[in-house]
Write a structure and sequence with these properties.
Elements: H1 14-39, H2 42-60, H3 63-66, E1 73-76, E2 79-82, H4 87-95, E3 100-103, H5 111-123, E4 126-129, H6 140-152, E5 157-160, H7 167-178, H8 184-187, H9 205-219, H10 224-230, H11 234-240, H12 245-254
Amino acid sequence: MSLDAPELPKKLPLKKRFRRARRASRERFAERRQRAFERSPKWLQNSLFRAYDYFDMIVIDHGIFRIFWTNRAQISRDIWRCNQPAPYQLGQMARRGIKTVLNLRGDRECGGFRLEKDACDRLGLELVNFSLKSRAAPAKDVLHEAKALFETLEYPVLLHCKSGADRAGLASVLFMHFKEGLPIERAIEQLSPKFGHFKNSDTGIIDFVFDQYLKDNAAEPMEFMRWVDEVYDPDALEAEFKSGSLSNLLVNKILRRE
């Protein structure tokens, strides 16, 4: 009788272990910062901590580049897209009549998000946090939630991610299809190099999803959401998708996309 040796847990690749450690370190720092903020007098909250939030937004989150390049565009009467806006840029958009800010980065513990939230509160803008991913096929429930969200927002809307290229592009495609009624083959013009989106990089999984729909729709015509419910397989598309190393070098290493 032979006993099989117990299977040892697989060791995570070094890159994944480093990312997890970095994420855990950021979370610990955020918790300590929040505790220190809550225990500090008001004058310190409004000076030192606010200065740190600006440093975090401008340096850590690469906001220095967004001062000169906003990647802003009005894609319909009711909606604008851009990269992460600074408080003064939100003020500019409020004066243009924007009612809602749709933050596609989600609720984050960082300086840029705190400044954005404070600015929206001060300007009377509604801040809606809806997290999208730029390097994964969107889940079916996310597509349904996006469709419902566009029906409930107060317009005009400013939507943004970090760079205004990939998640903003995905949301813009969905808006143009769900709300404006454009067919997917026209709505996908929002995924364009002019906004800094490169379909041969990891973020091209977004294009790959819509391309698969168009291919299936040509063979058997069906509405996009029916295809999502009956045909769409996010895991299979992610397994099939292949990105290019040069495009990934540009997007992931040089541009440092989120």
